[in-house]
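Supplementary Note 3. Input sequence used for the single-chain structure prediction.
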Amino acid sequence: MDTMKVTINLEESTISIYNNGRGIPIEIHEREKIYVPELIFGHLLSSSNYDDDENKLTGGRNGYGAKLANIYSHEFTVETADKNTQQKYKQTWTDNMSKCGKPKITKSLKNEEFTRITFKPDLKRFGMTRIDEDTASLLCKRVYDMAGITKDVKVYLNDERLKIKNFKQYVEMYINSAQAEAAENSGGAAQPKPMIIHEQAGPRWEIAFAVSDGAFQQVSFANSIATTKGGTHVSYIADQIAKNLVAAISKKNKAATVKPAQIKNHMWIFINALIVNPTFDSQTKETLTLPSSKFGSKPVLSEDFMKKGNPCLFFGECLKGSPRL
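The predicted structure, written as discrete structure tokens, is reproduced below.
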């Protein structure tokens, strides 16, 4: 897959997600005797992700996500192209998945592969009459998230390609936004841009670090899932950075009594991680709960990363209660 497209039509209250990855097999399921796309999107408990002995780098487990989107929609349509059969498949459900339309199967182009989901949410069930501004902003943010954390994938929002091409650029958007907000709050006075330290810590971890405004902040992902409340992966990295900075501060000033908690109050951490068989606090997956011993990989920040995090350069006298560094 190298292309992802998301279209949010506020006037019609419809959302469409497309990718050109491997299409869904267009064939009758041997046991269930229905087409595989219908089984995946229109029948509960039809996931194949239940083997606890298998190491997986996916996020979902029970296959609820797409089915719940179907259940909570007035209309839900799946389209896919299977290059093996050289066929295209289209099927629509209506009335909260209670009515299943007949699949339409046509000939596809040679080697054509894609999947597109288009749905019209049943907004009344969410106490809404339209997709409001806050919801639209959240949906758009998730598209920007995908642009920042998926490598070598062109991401489009409403037919416009997003300019974010990697995780570091994604982090810079946050830092630039914070800098602009600080300038606005200071009456327009120019604000220094915080330094960003970025590192690819092995094939499964990408980490960035900057100084926060005095409270711990984090933006993190586990297997492309936005862990908005953080979790064990964030603690693992924060503890590693804090430990190294405390050691560096003590080396420069043996009288300093800086504790890791003081350091963490000035951290802004960004993490994009792939975790083996992740577990979360709830279906919304806001917090990763898997013990670090089971991550499947152990990111160790390089000496160069830590040197760039020189405590004098970053913190100066912001660690209140500690001697001047």
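Residues 317-325 have pLDDT under 50 and may be disordered. Residues 93 and 100 are 5 Å apart (CA to CA).
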